[in-house]
Amino acid sequence: MTAAVEFQSVSRHFGPVKAVDSVDLTIAEGAFFAMLGPSGSGKTTCLRLISGFETPTGGAIRIFGEDVSATPPHLRNVNTVFQDYALFPHMNVRDNVAYGLMVKGMGRAARLARAEEMLALVKLDGYGDRKPAQLSGGQRQRVALARALVNEPRVLLLDEPLGALDLKLREAMQDELKALQHRLGITFIFVTHDQHEALSMADSLAVFNEGRIAQIGTPAEIYDRPATRFVADFVGSSNVLPPDLTRALGGPAQWASLRPENTRLAASGPVTGTVTALRYLGSGTRVVLDLGGTEVAALLPAGQPLPEPGAALSIAFDPAALHVMGDAA
Amino acid sequence: MHSDRASLGLRIAAVAGLAFLHLPILLIFLYAFTTEERTYAFPPPGLTTQWFAVAWSRPDIWDALLLSLQVAAVATVLAMILGTLVAAAMSRARFFGREQISLLVLLPIALPGVITGIALRSAFGIMDIPFSTWTIILGHATFCIVIVYNNAVARFRRLSGGVMEASADLGANAFQTFRYVLLPNLGTALLAGGMLAFALSFDEVIVTTFTAGQQATLPIWMLEELIRPRQRPVTNVVAMVVFAATFLPILIAYYLTRNGQELAGSGK
């Protein structure tokens, strides 16, 4: 099967800044793929390389096997849901959705009927006559989604699709996007800096750091077996243990990752430290210990007795929970 | 008890202020109908409409009017093209010295007209350019560009760059994006800018004095006419024409930009 999107050592340098540096990436057809990373890590530039708003300074990009490096955005069968939605303010919702069909020359009646179908798909039937300014953030997002899907793209790109929504709406939209992608069978590629979003929605994801991909894998692989210290820290705020601490705690002399939810507090142990901070999270409390200069967090479930700040404690964990990493940054 | 109404003193002051500003304009209209042709005695000894006929039959008025219309129209067209291009460059590109150039573009409207006038006059002199309709047009274009630029740049700023990309992303070529996205969003701002520029050019006196040579635009003609006490009410008739020619475009521009705010302020 041909990959939906394929990057072959793709680079995008802006002068001395390597926004995207020699990235290899294969996204399977029908995947729900996430590009996760902090701001400035190159994930958005990668998305814009696929949509065509950036051109690579090196390497080749193929969409369904076809080299698109020289194809302008309006000739690519790829559509985007923009971060700020970028709805056309002077058009009503129906005309917004029908825009892609209009510029292709489809007749008015046919394209407006199609736009209504798309609005029904995103549960906005009856909103066609409104202007974007009359919609809530969540509704605008659905319009942007319908507008991007009307051209029946083979790949849909979503740039921080849920970033502007409040928490409740965001969770509802996560489920909806997932269901929609399942139903349409289109390849969805979305960019996010929110690890929860990436882990819960994507079938597979790439973690970006400084213009390169730090790790590609399924959410479980990324979460349970982070390849680098960066991935361990960025995805799920894992405790990153330096080699000497790992060894003192009974592991090999290598960098290791230990999830706070797998870490317990113990009265005594091979290494003791002091409690430096307590953070109440509702479902539990995050207790931070200073273990010989390394901050290690333990997530205590609600209801457990909490230590006092400054108390001398150690940690305990199931040896299987300790994930040893290579030395890579 | 709390009241939304302003105090009596404030209301009287507001009415007095408006009366001070606008009663003289009404007087101009009134004296267009007076029977006394040498002085503006109050109250007018009698009322007549003969001055409209007199004004209609005087070729010097027609010459001045046509010149003014011609200058205002050409200066406005020039300003709309150049002002829009400058605004597009300023809002879509980042380059060295951008802020300074932006200031330079705005300068002609901040400078006193006398300075602009003298500067242009000596420049035309040095370059051996004889005074003509074109020198007046160039003089007016200096400030008309600023008006159009100001209107256009504000609209460009409100129009998020994303909508142009969204248009391309949905399959529109550059022309379609211009036609269906840029123009509808920019149109009212450009029209409003053009109207204001036209109105400004139509009643401009100072820069025109320095760049017109022997020709007289309508405001210059009025200025000369006031010095000669002959058929004075004709000047008032012309004043009404100037009033209509400048007030209507400004009124239209006001409504255009007011609606435009609702239109373009909805990007996010």
Provide an overview of this structure:
The complex is a heterodimer of chains A (about 325) and B (about 270). In chain A, about 25% of the residues lie in helices and about 30% in strands. Chain A has about 325 residues and is an alpha+beta fold. Chain A has two domains: about 5-230, 3-Layer(aba) Sandwich (Rossmann fold); about 255-325, Nucleic acid-binding proteins (OB fold (Dihydrolipoamide Acetyltransferase, E2P)). In chain A, the strands form four sheets. Chain A has a six-stranded mixed sheet, with helices on both faces. In chain A, strands 13-17-14-15-16 form a five-stranded antiparallel sheet, with no helix packed on it. Chain B has a single domain (about 50-265), classed as Orthogonal Bundle (MetI-like fold). Chain B is globular, with a radius of gyration of 23 Å. The interface between A and B is medium-sized, with 29 and 25 residues.
Number of strands of chain A: 18
Cross-sheet strand order for the largest sheet of chain A:
6-7-8-3-9-10
What percentage of the residues of chain B does DSSP assign to strands (E)? Answer: under 5%
Helix content of chain A: 25-40%
CATH architecture annotation name of chain B: Orthogonal Bundle
Q: Which percent range describes the beta-strand content of chain A?
A: 25-35%
What summary fits the major beta sheet of chain B?
none
* Content-based structural category of chain A: alpha+beta
Structural domain tally of chain A: 2
List the SSEs and their pairings:
The complex is a heterodimer of chains A (329) and B (268).
Chain A: E1 5-14, E2 17-27, E3 32-36, H1 43-51, E4 58-63, E5 66-67, E6 78-81, H2 93-102, H3 108-121, H4 137-149, E7 155-159, H5 167-184, E8 187-192, H6 195-201, E9 204-209, E10 212-217, H7 219-224, H8 229-234, E11 239-241, H9 243-248, E12 256-258, E13 264-266, E14 272-280, E15 284-291, E16 294-301, E17 312-316, E18 323-324
Parallel strand pairs in A: 3-8, 3-9, 6-7, 7-8
Antiparallel strand pairs in A: 1-2, 1-4, 4-5, 9-10, 11-12, 12-18, 13-17, 14-15, 14-17, 15-16
Chain B: H1 8-31, H2 50-56, H3 59-92, H4 98-110, H5 113-126, H6 133-158, H7 162-169, H8 174-202, H9 206-211, H10 218-227, H11 232-264
Helix pairs in contact in B: 2-11, 3-6, 3-8, 3-10, 4-6, 6-8, 7-8, 8-11, 10-11
